Amino acid sequence: MRNNPVSVSHIPQALPYLVTAHTVEADAPELAHMLTWEAVAPVVALGYFSRQYPPHPITSQFAVRCLRSYPSVRPVAVGTVRVVSVVVAAEFERLIMSFCRFSPGALSVF
Predict the structure, then answer these.
(1) How many CA within 13 A on the CB side of residue 105?
(2) Nearest to 24 by CA among 36, 12, 15
(3) What sign for the dihedral angle of Cα 7, 13, 18, 24?
(4) Cα–Cα–Cα angle for 64, 30, 23, rounded to 5 degrees
(5) Residue spans per domain, the chain
(6) What's the pLDDT tens digit per position in 30-88?
């Protein structure tokens, strides 16, 4: 399948064999096939925004395209993105505060 991903790109269930956390982290060339892959279920698409996969522009584009193909999922997806944004902001704030504990002059930068 890795040699000819186009031959199975119409099968959404085949995508996990091509896209793994390792291939995303390594920025493997075969990730480009995601852009033309058949849409996956909304739950799977949201998984590309989770901690299971490192952030990557191609996985994000694919997930957004899949979520847009399910109009009834949009309100749920928007709510999920809001929750994720709040969690990320809280984690960022914790990181900054822990950094400030170790560097007393760090807040002068902000």
Answers:
(1) 0
(2) 15
(3) positive
(4) 80
(5) 1-69, 74-110
(6) 999 999 999 998 889 888 988 899 989 999 999 988 888 877 766 665 666 666 666 66
pTM of the model: 0.65
* CA distance linking residue 56 with residue 3, whole number of Å: 22
CA distances from 33 to 7, 25, 104, 109 (A): 11, 16, 48, 42
Q: Which two tokens stand for residue 65?
A: 């395209």
Compute the distance between CA of residue 75 and CA of residue 38 in angstroms, rounded to an integer.
22
Write a three-state SS string for 55-98: CCHHHHHHHHHHHHCCHHHHHHHHHHHHHHHHHHHHHHHHHHHH
| Structure-token match 């007393």, residue found | 104
The values of phi and psi at residue 39, to 5°, are -65, 140
CA separation (Å) from 95 to 19, 99, 100, 107?
A: 30, 6, 9, 13
